Amino acid sequence: MEGSSESNSRGLNTSGVSEFLPAERIIADRSKSLSHIGYVRSLLGSHKEDNLRADDDINVRALKCEDVSLRQWLDNPERSVDAFECFHVFRQIVEIVNAAHSQGIVVHNVRPSCFVMSSFNRVSFIESASDSGSDEERAKDTKTTTTRKSQEIGGSRKEEYQEEKQPFPMKEILAMEMSWYTSPEEDTGSHSGCASDVYRLGVLLFELFCPVSSREEKSRTMSSLKHRVLPPQILLKWPKEASFCLWLLHPEPSFRPSMSELLKSEFINEPRESLEEREAAIELRERIEEQELLLEFLFLIQQRKQETADKLRDTVSLLSSDIDQVLKRQLSLKQKGNDVLSFLVSRKRIRQGAEGVATEENEDNIVDDTLDSTLLESSRLMRNFKKLESVYFATRYRQIKAAASFKPLARYSSALSSDGKSSVSNLTQPSRDHMNDSRQGGWIDPFLEGLCKYLTFSKLRVKADLKQGDLLNSANLVCAIGFDRDGELFATAGVNKKIKIFECESIIKDGRDIHYPVVELASRSKLSGVCWNSYIKSQIASCNFEGVVQVWDVTRGQLVTEMKEHEKRVWSIDISTADPTLLASGSDDGSVKLWSINQGVSIGTIKTKANVCCVQFPSDSGRSLAFGSADHRVYYYDLRNPKLPLCTMIGHTKTVSYVRFVDSSTLVSSSTDNTLKLWDLSMSVSGVNEAPVHSFMGHTNVKNFVGLSVSDGYIATGSETNEVYVYHKAFPMPVLSYKFKTVDPVSRLEVDDPSQFISSVCWRGQSSTLVAANSTGNIKILEMV
């Protein structure tokens, strides 16, 4: 259509009944078309370049607002005729058409498919028409537009679904609608004018008051209407409406009423007062619904805030209870301190005993003040206050949940009363109360211990740098570090195919330029792990990339046993502390093998579906074993029943590279998903644990083995940022960290090398000292201070 690219679909409000009007309509007088178009555009506001796109936007907006096409509303088989409702819809359309005619514009598209109905039967005009071209071109273009409309309206999933339920297929009805709303003069090829729009209003009025139940009846009724033949039911039930409709449908355009005559007619004006009353009622209902919407919104806010307030009240109550518990403990400790002081005073016969007590109380106050200032001034505590708070509440709620599930047995002691009857004594009640108090305060000791340990140390200090003669050798990656049972010697192993044994104290005390190992053991292949025997001081085991497990005598510097049953690389080995003759190994062949060191052969195998990257025995038992796998899981087995795991821990999203026992019922796992996870073995349900106690985050680990070691609740791990991180089991954030400095061998200046990472860490027994190595073979002895 000519000029369609410059058309506009902005809306013009007419008497408050129309939200959308077309930007262009066909002009009756073609000689005035351009001036009319410009004038209408000035009324309608800003322009869009693409009329079709604008129409599409309007349709989409209408559908999104849950508007419905007037065509769909008319053809709804459940629709019953409500005279006031029909008058309300008809009058809105009449006023829209009159607004166009008053400007000399012929609408042409006065058809139900060109209108939408919003809530409370508000009618909006959504279709644009061309301003130029022959009648045939307009008919063709309008048909094309209608087809596009039918695709737009009938193509959505929502309306396709509705079509299946309705007896009026939308696409077919829209195709027939063009012929129904074509005036007699347009059928004969005559000029189309304002009278043609009046004819179309007559057809629309007929459809409003004559609903049909089937497509065939619809087609038959509308065909008869072309000949001004109305169904008997409309003549009997709606005689006034039928008469007015026939006037509008007169075959001679000159005999049809003009828009001004139509608006002045008794038919339009008679029900106006009732319609105005109805509109007022509708408007009132709209406002009530708006108020209800606001009310619902406010109620929802109130409900959520009330829930928050209830939770806050419960939280404050819990805190108050815990504060009381701590104050009771503090008071008890102070009383014990006063008793001890009184005892010392009496023993030493100090005359000014009262002054001593006063001095002690002053000292207590000083201690309290010092503690307060320590907590407030500790930047690490304040920086991680939110995390500490979350751990506190998690600990408390876990303890409360456990207490709620605990059902103590009622124990009573029976006694014979003076009258010979049996009575129930409550002598055991105080013990139960004491037990309850003990359970309620059971969180204090572990949380306080963790908090104190978290705040005990402030940094990692370098005690010594281990400088080796082959530092420039590119094959210096240290894969594993291990201390002997007494913490005197530590071994390193890596891709240089050597196990090097160093004496820890001599390295710390001697400030030599180069440190040499006291023993060096050579292997045929790259080494991936080492482990000392906790019983035989001189015995150490290793595993390598060829899948061989070896046992060495450090004192003699000789290979004692070599075991070759694995088919692929062995990643990890561990010797049981409880049974020093039992060794476990995990391999890329998907198996865990149990070895008898004395016999030099495997005595059991656990097969898995994925690579096994790490194994470890608990310190107090040789009957159980944990291992981590490339399937992202940690498995815990009772070796007396190796067919099924006792517990499977699920939570990591990548390969589990290390597992270490913190104590007999708790273990920590490391993964290349950037996390460490702490698991409570007693929390498994049906052999599965999907809820770690903590997820430790702060370090970076996405592709390399960076080491993992545990000592007295402290967990050390490496990072791919060339840093050592230390966590405590009580809290998920780092306690300390230390970054290895990279020095350029030529310029002797510090440089940042992103390719370097920490490759192994190991605590020195239960001390605060650890050894860490990075991917270049740089080894440091660090101490928490």
Automatic annotation (TrEMBL):
GO CC annotation: nucleus
Query: Per UniProt, what is one Pfam family of this protein?
Result: WD40
- The UniProt entry lists the main location of this chain as nucleus
**Domain (Protein kinase): residue spans on this chain:** 1-268
WD repeat segments: 563-605, 649-682
Q: Give residue spans, biased composition: Basic and acidic residues.
A: 135-165
List where in the cell it is found. Nucleus
Report the protein name in the record.
Protein kinase domain-containing protein
Q: Which organism is it from?
A: Eruca vesicaria subsp. sativa
